[in-house]
Specification:
A hairpin with a 2-residue loop joins strand 9 (105-106) and strand 10. Helix content is 19%, strand content 20%. The chain is globular and about 45 Å long. The longest helix has 17 residues, at 131-147. A six-stranded mixed beta sheet has the order 3-7-6-11-5-12. With 185 residues, it is of the alpha/beta class. The model has no long low-confidence stretch (mean pLDDT 97). The protein contains four helices and twelve strands; from the N terminus they run E-E-E-E-E-H-E-E-E-E-E-E-H-E-H-H.
């Protein structure tokens, strides 16, 4: 299977689309030249529930779980979430700025949201990701590389790389070599 991006809409074909209000326009002239790999689960370590979707669409009930109190009023998003079964849900069109990186720096450039695409893998730092997630991430990445010429395989980083000391994802469970091998296939 091949994933493709509709350049006009900025949407991944064959992905569910649930628009997040937590995005805005990129700065004038900003080239998309960084892909950031994240991981997320809500509550931490639990997979398959509605909570990540609720967080990214500002409908998360802070009373639904004790750990959600800290998330009240938080306005975040990612361009795409890849679930454990490889299904993809898009929240922000790729040409728009998602609010995924927070305080961040790549090389000498700060504010990574301005020039990056953020993809969340449903998971936690210490639990192996699924074969379906690696395969889908590689297919999506290949589609993004075809769509945005300023994005290259060398410009892919983990959240931990752009926010060291603050973020640890995708963590030691993420097999970078495995992902890069799939990307070359």
């Amino acid at each position: 299977a091949i994933d493709t991006v509709d350049r006009g809409s900025g949407l991944l074909r064959d992905a569910a689309y649930r628009p997040s209000p937590n995005c805005d326009d990129r700065p004038e002239g900003a080239a998309i030249d960084l892909l950031v790999v994240h991981c997320i689960s809500l509550p931490a370590g639990e997979f398959g529930g509605p909570w990540v979707d609720a967080l990214f669409t500002n409908t998360l009930d802070p009373q639904a779980h004790a750990s959600f109190a800290d998330l009240e009023g938080l306005r975040v998003s990612a361009h795409l979430v890849i679930h454990r079964d490889g299904a993809a849900v898009q929240y922000v069109p790729f040409h728009r700025r998602a609010w995924h990186a927070g305080v961040s720096c790549y090389g000498a450039r700060e504010r990574c949201n301005d020039f990056s695409i953020g993809i969340e893998l449903e998971g936690v730092d210490t639990v192996p990701y699924t074969p379906a997630q690696y395969q889908r991430l590689a297919r999506v990445t290949a589609a993004l590389l075809r769509t945005y010429p300023s994005l290259t395989p060398e410009c892919i980083a983990g959240h931990c790389d752009i926010a060291p000391g603050r973020k640890t994802d995708p963590g030691p469970a993420f097999e970078w070599d495995r992902f890069r091998r799939l990307l070359k296939d």
